[in-house]
Design goal:
With about 170 residues, the protein is α+β, with helices and mostly antiparallel strands. The chain is built from 4 helices and 8 strands, in the order E-H-E-E-H-E-E-H-E-E-E-H. Strand 4 and strand 5 form a beta hairpin.
Length: about 170
């Protein structure tokens, strides 16, 4: 794949945690068949007054400084691409240790709507050329950009050894 227009919409602080090696997974209420996507930054959690309480203490400064995406007018900067390497199904009571993510364990459990959690193990890449994306109104989880974004020259944020070590949940 040399380019793509497919995006997963996710809160900017979570995207930056993935891109800056602080997180290797997403925990979801659902599975997906989409296995490759750009990480499109949103502002969802930053709109809540007490949003920092949902994150581990050691990451609260990081979350606060990364809660909003880089913007130019109404465009947001896309810096990362991800491949979904695996989905692991677990009972919510057996979710992985907080060493794999920046949220608190209680926040993750409260976020889940059923008894099953789907842990998305992502391999994240930094784009060689970040892309200024126009808004994607109406799209909640996934979006398609109007233009293809080049994936040439992107680099994994974790080398193979680090990725294997950190993706064991």
């Amino acid at each position: 794949m040399k380019s793509t227009h497919k995006c997963l919409k996710e809160w900017n602080a979570t995207i930056e945690a993935l891109g800056q090696r602080k997180q290797t997974i997403l925990i979801r209420n659902y599975k997906t068949n989409v296995t490759e996507f750009l990480l499109y930054p949103t502002v969802s959690y930053a709109l809540k007054d007490d949003y920092l309480e949902s994150f581990q203490g050691e990451y609260q400064d990081f979350v606060q400084s990364n809660s909003l995406p880089d913007k130019k007018g109404d465009k947001v900067l896309i810096k990362y691409f991800a491949t979904l390497e695996e989905i692991v199904e677990k009972l919510v009571s057996r979710i992985p240790s907080p060493k794999h993510y920046i949220w608190t364990r209680d926040h993750v459990k409260n976020y889940m709507t059923g008894k099953t959690a789907y842990i998305w193990i992502l391999r994240v890449y930094e784009l060689k050329e970040p892309y200024w994306a126009e808004p994607t109104p109406g799209a909640l989880r996934y979006a398609n950009l109007k233009e293809e974004v080049s994936l040439k020259g992107m680099e994994p944020v974790l080398n193979d050894t680090e990725f294997v070590k950190l993706s064991k949940i």
